[in-house]
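Researcher: I'm comparing several assemblies side by side, and this is the next one on my list. It has 474 residues spread over four chains. Same procedure as the others: predict the full complex and return the structure.
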Amino acid sequence: MNSKHAALLLTESYKQHAQHYLAVDCTILGYEDGELKLLLYPRGFEPAFGSWSLMGGFVQQNESMEAAAMRVLLQTTGLKDIYLDQVAAFSDPNRDPGARVISMTFMALIRIDKHDKDLVRENGAHWWPVTKLPPMIFDHHQMFEKSLDLLQQKASTGLIGRELLPDRFTLMQLRNLYEAIFQRTFDPGNFRKKILSLNVLERLNVKNTTESKKGAYYYQFKKDISDQKNDRIVKFG
Amino acid sequence: MNSKHAALLLTESYKQHAQHYLAVDCTILGYEDGELKLLLYPRGFEPAFGSWSLMGGFVQQNESMEAAAMRVLLQTTGLKDIYLDQVAAFSDPNRDPGARVISMTFMALIRIDKHDKDLVRENGAHWWPVTKLPPMIFDHHQMFEKSLDLLQQKASTGLIGRELLPDRFTLMQLRNLYEAIFQRTFDPGNFRKKILSLNVLERLNVKNTTESKKGAYYYQFKKDISDQKNDRIVKFG
DNA sequence: CCAAAAGTGTTGCTTGTACACCCATGT
DNA sequence: ACATGGGTGTACAAGCAACACTTTTGG
């Protein structure tokens, strides 16, 4: 297009352009039994009927992508006000063999214990440990990988856990979450010192005695902290 | 489509959904005269005719977003094989008063000296120092901000410069680039040591004498290095 | 000679990392 | 008693940051 030509065109000029189906696909991540888990459901229509797929939906006419993702999450988990992050857009013309669909991936972090289990079961959905994922349709595995990258990056530069752990948790539980996210171990003592030095957690005067004989103090996130960025939480070897 | 049957099924299940105009907007960044600069051009059609805007274009029917961004860049700068990164999608239903357009922002890094200046001039475009940007249309300033965030992040975790500097450059030029990106100063000695310790540059036996009396060695990026990630280049105070 | 950048060295401080070590307690 | 995790401390290494200092050369 050359600019002199374009300059003559008015708003109606939008009409000459192609329109596209636009979808959102959500990598819904939760933490349960010491494992990071991804919610997948069997696709309900062709092509690839029955194959495992991320939760997704189409963006409607008067809806932002974020709103569409929220809608999908509400419909599938019954949860509102969920932590959401744009991950990446996938727009290869042939990514979906059925039609030309562009999809934006969102990462959602939820507390598995809080979601509507019946609703999830109704959809035939299943929580898969991220270490043992089944084959997925189209580019959904790439979507997951990018989401995990983003999660790791977020967990490195800020303390993650608010969205994945219960209100109160022990430092061991937090460490186990980090170990699940990074798929490696952290020195318990060093982890404790690093996390506490960030000054975003407060200790409660209650102990959890179910996971250790001695009992470990519960911690919770400080209320006022506005998700500040700390550089490099994860640098342990 | 591979099979009429599949196409029919698909039409049925996808047809009910809305379709959208999809655009790409490029934050084209270059480095010149010690400043980081953004290429903007006066919008050629209503609404907001004449206001400054990022380079953009619509995604066509059989084109990925990346391909669309490449096309825009070729048309406006004459450059191929440009470094591109997805930044973020903007999908507020009212972001463009002219029509419902969803836009993906791409960040492009180019060498100002290599682009087609006539082509840029022809479009009425202008390179603006990022510290003195004019008002821009719609959400384009947000797009720029997100792009700059991404650039800073990239410059922190890896050595940036390949795409913005000439083939050979002095460490002072590289430092000036970093100072432009982060809008702060770096200690010359420490910067030098840090950068060289990354082991991605090689020194040439040629000196630049235009910027200092003593003359400074030229460096270039090692050929084989596959853009490895180094953690935390920027941590200087 | 002076200014200005190139380039090297030194020193103090912070932080990561690998441990050792005692504590509390359920089995 | 002992295994297990809780919690603290120590010691070494690595890296950052501030800054001193020497070199080179054009004006």
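Model: For your comparison table: The longest helix of chain B spans residues 140-157.
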